[in-house]
Write a structure and sequence with these properties.
With 428 residues, the chain is α+β, with helices and mostly antiparallel strands. The protein has two domains: 76 residues, Sandwich (Immunoglobulin-like); 276 residues, ABC transporter involved in vitamin B12 uptake, BtuC (Orthogonal Bundle). It is built from twelve helices and 14 strands. A hairpin with a 4-residue loop joins strand 4 and strand 5. Helix 7 packs across helix 9.
């Protein structure tokens, strides 16, 4: 056990050394306000943001850059008033709902993200959005497309989480940090070492897969051998998540970053949908990976063994299946797929040390909604969650979109506790 801990510590130390290298950029700490302005997935450059105190005293003005990002640092924590100058927006853009003022709170040593949802401005004489005119349905189609993209990213993260739960019974709260780690490693190779994003992403997936293997071989596997219960291991995973999150904050920093490649691209219009080429490619890659994993689970020997272990580990072991080997393969694949989800999330949004934590709740919602321990249930549940939270912004503020997804989760589980594709189980 002692050798395993030393080996795992050395492995983690090498990874930390990688993250502490030239990839680190930006300030060491942050206390202020920031945000990103996008119109139909495209960054808005040159928009003006004015920040004042709650009493109206001017603090600072900012202008969005080519990536649509703005940032204002403040000296004192407290409540501030953020106003978007609608006159500085593109002529075809407007703020959804018409409210261009936000009143966020800045806490000591932290940056608050301020959201302004932009939408295409209705042409003169065109029916308003609320009465079901053309603009409403165009927005619905656009948001559905964005929801599918988000749902597939959630599905990549949920797939590994669901497989690990199915084979080990572990609810891994550190899975979100594997997502962040994948994005940060890709960022390290892309920005720090100047490697193009595609090979950098492949390297990140390989490194994360090795970390997943190392986690189970040197840590989780040792806990299973010692007879540690699943509840205790779940609590340990919370501690691991906090440790990794703070290490990422220390070495990567609290700032928001972007990859060097594919940041700004001209939009492509397909029917009512307008999106950057990277979004279409991302959906294609995500679907391909999910299909390959699904086929592997159904057709390959290892996939059949994984399903057997998920159904009954003791019976699988008595049938000659090496349960520990199967679990390590699942950990490796799950961590690698989570890393790919992190890269896709960073490509779609931005990178920050809490990105995995932020999406973890949606991953749990997708897994639970689809059915705990079922890979295909995780896919279905994640798509439902992703599409619903995006489309719901037609009626609710973007800040509350995740609340609606959780409400749907609660309603579904009231009528079908096992989830959409889960199986009823007798307890007792």
């Amino acid at each position: 056990m002692r050798r395993a801990v030393i080996a795992f510590t050395a492995f983690l130390g090498g990874l930390i050394f990688l993250l502490a290298g030239p990839a680190h950029a930006g300030p060491a700490d942050c206390q202020g306000l920031r945000g990103t302005l996008k119109l139909q997935g495209q960054p808005v450059n040159g928009a003006k943001i004015a920040v004042t105190t709650e009493g109206g005293q001017p603090v600072k003005e900012a202008t969005t850059n080519a990536q649509g990002i703005w940032d204002v640092q403040v000296e004192q924590p407290g409540k501030y008033k953020v106003t978007l100058d609608v006159g500085s927006l593109p002529q075809n853009a407007e703020v959804r709902g018409g409210n261009n003022v936000r009143t966020p709170t800045v806490y000591e040593g932290n940056c608050s993200t301020v959201l302004f949802a932009l939408q295409p401005k209705a042409a003169p004489g065109q029916a308003p959005q609320s009465d079901g005119g053309t603009t409403f349905w165009q927005q619905a189609a656009q948001l559905t497309f964005e929801g599918v993209n988000l749902g597939l990213i959630i599905a990549l993260g949920a797939l590994g989480l669901s497989l690990i739960y199915g084979t080990t019974g572990l609810t891994n709260f550190a899975h979100g940090e594997l997502i962040t780690l994948g994005a940060v490693i890709a960022y390290a190779f892309n920005v720090g070492f100047g490697i193009q994003l595609i090979p950098a992403a492949i390297i990140a997936v390989i490194v994360a897969g090795a970390l997943g293997y190392g986690q189970d071989r040197l840590f989780w596997g040792q806990l299973r051998k010692r007879g540690t219960g699943t509840i205790a291991m779940m609590i340990i995973s919370i501690g691991v998540a906090i440790l990794l999150r703070n290490l990422l904050q220390f070495f990567f920093g609290p700032q928001t970053e972007n990859f060097n490649d594919y940041v700004t691209q001209p939009g492509i219009t397909v029917g009512p949908i307008t999106a950057a080429p990277k979004n279409f490619w991302a959906i294609g890659i995500e679907l391909t990976v999910l299909v390959i994993v699904g086929i592997a689970l159904m057709k390959t020997r290892t996939g059949k063994a994984a399903r057997a272990v998920a159904d009954n580990p003791a019976l699988a072991a008595s049938s000659g299946i090496n349960v520990d080997r199967v679990i390590r393969i699942i950990w490796t694949a799950g961590a690698a797929i989570a890393a790919l989800a992190g890269v896709m999330l960073g490509l779609s949004q931005s990178l920050k040390f809490t990105m995995g934590q932020d999406i973890l709740l949606l991953i749990f919602a997708g897994v639970t909604l689809g059915g705990l321990g079922t890979a295909f249930g995780a896919l279905v549940g994640s798509l439902v969650v992703g599409v619903f939270i995006q489309v719901s912004t037609l009626w609710v503020p973007p800040e509350l979109k995740s609340v609606g997804a959780l409400a749907v989760l609660i309603i579904v589980l009231l009528f079908r506790p096992q989830g959409i594709l889960g199986r009823r189980e007798r307890i007792g």
